[in-house]
Amino acid sequence: MNLQLDEIAKAVGGTLDGPGNVKVRGYSIDTRTLNPGELFFAVKGPRFDGHEFVKQAIEKQAAGAVVSSPAESAANFSVVRVGSTLDALQDLARAVRRRWGQPIVGVTGSAGKTTTKEMIASVLGKKFTVLRSIGNFNNEFGLPLCLLRVERSQTMAVLEMGMSAKGEIRKLASIAEPNEGVITNVNPVHLEFFDSIDGIAEAKAELLEGLVEPRIAYLNNDDSRVRAMARKFSGKIVTYGVKSVAAFKVQQIEDLGLGGSAFTVHHGRRDVNFVLPLLGTHNVANALAAVAVGVTHEVPWEDIRAAVAEMKPEKMRGQVIKFKEGFAVVDDCYNSNPKALTEMIRFLGRLQGYSRKIIVAGEMLELGSESGELHRACGREAARIDGAIVVGIQGETRSLLDGACEGGVDDERLHFAADAMQAGELLAHMVKPGDVVLFKGSRGVKLELALNALRARFSSMES
Fold first, then answer.
1. Which domains does the chain have, with CATH numbers?
2. Phi/psi class of residue 366: alpha, beta or left (left: φ > 0; alpha: ψ in -120 to 50)?
3. Is 342 helix (H, G, I), strand (E, B) or coil?
4. Is the peptide bond before 214 cis (omega within 30 degrees of 0)?
5. What is the structure's pLDDT at 157?
6. DSSP per-residue string spanning 257-319
7. Cα Rg of the chain, angstroms
8. How many angstroms separate the CA atoms of 103 and 306, rounded?
9. For residue 15, which of 67, 51, 87 has the smallest C-alpha distance?
């Protein structure tokens, strides 16, 4: 939606210095990726100030800059002066959203947000032209930038909404004004910033509070805290569940190993078979959310089946990598929490045809005072895999290894690495033909560095 600078200045309540008839081709907060003709927002963060990069924006032929402090200027370079550049970015996104006026589905939850968002967008894409969040652009900066990418021809949007503190999703909903909301689950994540898991649930429920007409909530009935949100919501409720009774219910699941899962969805008087190439039963629940949204929007069942069958894992989110030397890796490096790690450990335990199973677990961050016990519980889960080798990386994974030891894993099968690079060297000398290796850890651990050590030493068969 290409706007002129004078329209933008009006929308954000700013003062325009310079030509106002310049048409903006896009929006950016990062001069490293800024393209000619885009508008640069000089936002301030805890470790940077965008005003220091206005000169680069001028050199890159930006359409102009939005500033809240004195900054570099040039002849014929337009500047919109505002009180807060972040507020201006969000205000413009809200104005564009209202001008566009099409339905928006917001997606949140403690785990599976990005995968669920991608599935929903793919299902809806069989019938609509869909705007979707880029990657996991789901915060106060990323969500407005996603909205500002909307094109007039697009007829729906699916936006991911993340948070690490109370009030953040309420703010995002006030910008995007979603009509529908999907809540995948509530797990013990970000406990460093919350008193309890119930507090996390309240923060996730802010999405439902922020819905605008027709106000449709898609709730995972398997999660008791998500299920309880229905009691306070007055709009339309659509439930889905793998284990519980729901409007969209999985009847049976067949584990296809590294090939994913096959399952049957029961809805009304209909039973429909699906094949999902993504790993783990937790992804069946994510797919079920996409089915529920698709059916609600009258996407034909056959098209929904096709969209689910075509799904591919996002980078570092359950990708299967096979090596010519005869071992396989499950790359789930992007992030981790106790529930997600437990699910992947159980998936690894069910895998057939591998001589050894190696769990490479990076520290799970932001778990607060319960971090030690939550790590220890995951170690006890790992001990249920016969013959498992466990590699813990960084900090609290010592507790994870303690839990595995308590569960009966021999000391020689337990290894600790101070960081991902050290773990990579350890694994490069450890892996053998017939092994399957799971990599999972919080983003801050940079677990992909350990996987890169295997890529450097062995020959992966990645496309």
1. 5-84 (3.40.1390.10), 101-309 (3.40.1190.10), 319-457 (3.90.190.20)
2. left
3. helix
4. yes
5. 98
6. GGG-EEEEEEETTEEEEEEE-SSSHHHHHHHHHHHHHHHHTT--HHHHHHHHHT--PPTTSSE
7. 24
8. 23
9. 67
User: Residues for the chain: how many in total?
Assistant: 463
Distances (CA, A) of 120 to 136, 306, 407: 14, 13, 39
Residue 195: per-residue pLDDT: 84
Query: DSSP letter at 84?
Result: -
Cβ neighbours, 10 Å, residue 252: 10
CB-based contacts of 82: which residues, under 8 Å, 6+ apart? 12, 13, 14, 15, 66, 67, 68, 88
The answer, yes or no, to whether residue 190 has pLDDT greater than 80, is no
277-328 tens-digit pLDDT? 999 889 999 999 999 999 999 999 999 999 999 999 888 999 999 999 999 9
Q: Any residues with CB less than 8 A from the CB of 251 and at least 6 apart, and which?
A: 263, 264, 265, 266, 271
DSSP state of 108: E
Residue with tokens 């403690």, as numbered in its chain:
110
Give the span between the Cα atoms of 137 and 409, in whole angstroms.
40
Nearest to 357 by CA among 339, 335, 333, 381: 381
User: pTM here?
Assistant: 0.89
Distance in angstroms (rounded) separating the CA atoms of residues 182 and 337: 20
- Tokens linked to 314: 């996002």
Mean pLDDT of 254-258: 93
- Burial degree of 29 (CB within 10 A; 0-12, 13-18, 19+): buried
Widest Cα–Cα separation across the chain: 72
